[in-house]
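Researcher: Please predict.
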Amino acid sequence: MRWQSGRRSDNVLDRRGISLGRGGAIGGAGVVVALIAALLGAPQSVVRSLRGGGEVTETESGRVPSAAENEAAEFVKVVVGSTEDVWTDVFPRQVRRPYEPPRLVLFTEAVQSACGITGAAVGPFYCPLDSRVYLDLSFFRELDQRFGAPGDFAQAYVIAHEIGHHVQNLLGISDMVRDQRSRLPPAPSNQVSVATELQADCFAGVWAYHANHSGQVIEPGDAEEGLRGASAIGDDRLQREARGRVVPESFTHGSSAQRVQWFKSGMASGRMADCDTFARLDGARL
């Protein structure tokens, strides 16, 4: 990606130097809140966030980010800036309403959002309650070393996917999904979750289409990196790695093939209307 000269977003909050505590440490007694990773479908991607059990405290960690980490933070600002430029143009033209950009919060190890306290193991996630994307930069290293999806555009795809969840929130889809899933048994509820995640993949593809046509950041070969990223974090691949077998009825994010298919769909046309995953998946209609 040609990102170094790109516009930096002002909507990135850097909280990498903040440590959280509750009663001396995160992890004390409390009500366990299960948060599903935005991208990871395997059991280890489910992080337990604790509510209650004492007031949350924030302290300066004193940790100084490395030069590589600071460069990664600059990269994030450029990608977020690109999503702002694309969606500010595309959203009003295609759905006839203004686009309201989210904020992205960089954190280290754990962060407090309106959705609870979340550890870095959850991966990047979007909290619809405060309209913010949360990202620990260590996930980029995991994307490369664990999932075999190196490259800056694979990282950009991850960010664009989470911004896709924000687009869903603006459209009212997030509220409908929460309502629908609260009334369904596990298997159909999981199917609705899969449709939600695949639509965010498709919206990431819509961003890629328009970013590519603007000619500002995307270079030859970038699309292949994004497709590798989508394929690397499919539920089937993650379950096979974690359990040694695949259980399709427990999918929450979609198979590798599905994630690639829907990212390619958005990237092929740039049309939000081509991202109706709910109409295309059995049992996932809203």
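Model: Residues 25 and 265 are 45 Å apart (CA to CA).
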